[in-house]
Amino acid sequence: MSGLAQELAISVRDLVVGFGRQIVLDHLSLDVRRGEILGLVGASGGGKSVLMRTIIGLVPRRSGTIEVMGQPMGSVHDRSRQGPAGKWGILFQQGALFSSLTVRQNVQFPLRENLVLPQELMDEIAIAKLEMVGLRAEDADKYPSELSGGMTKRVALARALALDPPILFLDEPTSGLDPIAAGDFDTLIKTLQKTLGLTVFMVTHDLASLTTVCDRVAALADGKIVAIGPMRELLQSEHPWVRAYFHGKRSQMLQPHMR
Ligand SMILES: Nc1ncnc2c1ncn2[C@@H]1O[C@H](COP(=O)(O)OP(=O)(O)OP(=O)(O)O)[C@@H](O)[C@H]1O
């Protein structure tokens, strides 16, 4: 493995993904560095979720290569080449918890699926993960219907972290949260990155998240990554879509100091 490859958590090269006659990702290349929080922005329907789902092997690709932690990922039809359990944790946009399971059982779900552990140890792990995401041990016996939106996201995050993955995929993690809860969730993600050394790949439309937690931001347009870098560099991009996104009326209203 070359030095550069060792520094990369995810490396995507020349990726083509389509459905029928529609090409969604068109020879897309992207590197995610180990330990960084990378934010991905793009138009609605532009292919952000498809890119994330292709990396984790849920959507088949037509061509191109994907490496995760230096290992080539097989295509969706080749499950034997997928990484071992615990390679990544995922927080889907509709990151629904199992409504008939308690918080504790939800967090333990990946442990039960992948490991054989004594109940006592699983209980300890569940409480440790809940505390890691800012919840209390008392919350473990609650059911999803008893949780606020912010708490639900935290439980889903605790579940995503159950197997101690080095990479976390987040699909619009702050959507549906009020600005205070969203800010708290951003802070939590940043803290987890620092304390656990996590690599985070985050699809988001949230300008505050992009500005405050992302080390780099990648912009997806026309099926490709058209700009990538720290937010201050993206703001200088001449690409028409990137300019429209960050310098359009709405963005300027939210980020007046960025002009
Ligand atoms: N399983 C599928 N079958 C057919 N078309 C699909 C499938 N999944 C996604 N698409 C199409 O791929 C395109 C990209 O969708 P995707 O969900 O990745 O967009 P997105 O950038 O995440 O959008 P948003 O910001 O609105 O969530 C859309 O045109 C969508 O209809």
TrEMBL record:
Specify whether ATP-binding is a keyword of the entry.
Answer: yes
Report the GO molecular function annotations.
ATP binding; ATP hydrolysis activity
Residues in domain ABC transporter? Answer: 10-247
Among SMART domains, the record links this protein to: AAA
Alphabetized SUPFAM superfamilies for the sequence: P-loop containing nucleoside triphosphate hydrolases
> Which CDD domains does this entry report, sorted A to Z?
ABC_Org_Solvent_Resistant
Entry keyword Transmembrane helix: no
Which keywords appear in this protein's UniProt record, sorted alphabetically? Answer: ATP-binding, Nucleotide-binding, Transport
Pfam families per the UniProt record, alphabetical: ABC_tran
The UniProt entry, under PANTHER family, shows:
PROTEIN TRIGALACTOSYLDIACYLGLYCEROL 3, CHLOROPLASTIC
Purpose of the protein: Involved in beta-(1-->2)glucan export. Transmembrane domains (TMD) form a pore in the inner membrane and the ATP-binding domain (NBD) is responsible for energy generation.
Please state what the protein is called: ABC transporter ATP-binding protein
Upper classification of the organism? Bacteria, Pseudomonadati, Pseudomonadota, Alphaproteobacteria, Hyphomicrobiales
